[in-house]
Amino acid sequence: MATLRFLLKGNNNPSTIYARFRHGRNIDFIKSTTLVINPKYWNKPKGTVKQVAEFVDKKNLQNDLNALRTTILNSFNDHYSNGGIINSDWFSQTIKQHFNQDSKTDLNYLLDYAKYYKENLNSKVLVSGKTGVTANTLNRYKTIINKVKAFESKQKKRYTFENVDLRFYKDFKNYLLNVEKLSLNTVGRYINYIKTICIDAEKYGIKINRAVLSGEFRATKEKVNFITLSETEIQTIFEHDFSKTPYLENARNWLIVGVWTGARVSDLLQFTSNNINNGFIEYTAKKTDQKIILPLHPHIKEILLNNDNQFPREISAQRFNDYIKTVCKDAGLKQLVYGSKQKKIKKKVWRKTKGEYPKHELVSTHICRRSFATNHYGKLPTPVIMAVTGHTTERMFLNYVGKTAKDNANVLNDFWNVQEQKKQNKTPQLNVIKNQTA
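Given the sequence above, the corresponding structure tokens read:
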């Protein structure tokens, strides 16, 4: 008698649900259904989804499993009664056809699994307990899939996970650097995506090349020369008269709000009067879901006062990015500085090119957040700044503001010099002698 049972392998969250089909002594197949679940919602003895209130998708997932069961058993009855071959390929194809998956998909291949991995990111349960990822994360994996596809096309080869070795690492890295003309940091990010996909595949029983876990299969890095606005420059921009160009005045005001809040542009440009509470700005960061509270800087207070207690007019991130370059140019930030600027290298392809450029040309929306962090570093306790920027570790924060061990040593040296100077300038204590009275 044919039987079908669903099961999990391991306790990873999420875990893939497998289907086990048995018939007689010689037929015993186990295949992934591609459906996933948090193990705490799985009834192991019964091989079903626990119907508990806290799992909102319980009915849908169980219905999917029930429908798959019906498809498999009906397919078996049709094949078996007509003398068809019942083997592992039949079982695998039946599952794929049920979910309308491409019959050519083979998850042992890097590109196929990368697509599968991306498609399931929206159901991925993160460490925080939140389900799903941001649109930016999905776009990043879409990009790496396209890079792998282009690389395989150039190599005229499809790579299985066992092919992802140090030779792959070298060839893929050289392709991204020399053909795609990407920076070392961007290449390093793509290398890390490849490692993430490989590690995930291994969790679900796919054999990978162990070289991907070695120290040699590492991300490339280079020091980033980022641009910030000093407090003097911020004051200059704040005082500059943009009254004849209202759209630049509006962008300037958003820039000022940004450098004194350290908010990401995705949060910054969404500020309204509803975010103000008793002299504080309160908001929840979209990227990290962190609640952030900070006082109103005097510059922000003045902008609100001159605008009926409202934040500047709504503006898109792209226009804000474009306009603040002109804002900084009109305010006189034209000195040559070293940095990276987007340049067109061929049709529809832009890449960052290093060199010396007028400072205003290197200004982008991210200057708000970096300026806040760098201008307050060393003046406020680092945890206070991190509470505003949303960095979860001091290491991440120091890397963000570009501080090195030498920078920290200089801060300590300056502190000791100030303390020593206070000792040397200490006023001698005078004893008051009471005059005698006649």
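The beta strands are 3-8, 15-23, 27-37, 42-43, 48-49, 276-277, 280-284, 291-295, 336-346, 349-358. Try to locate this feature in the token string yourself.
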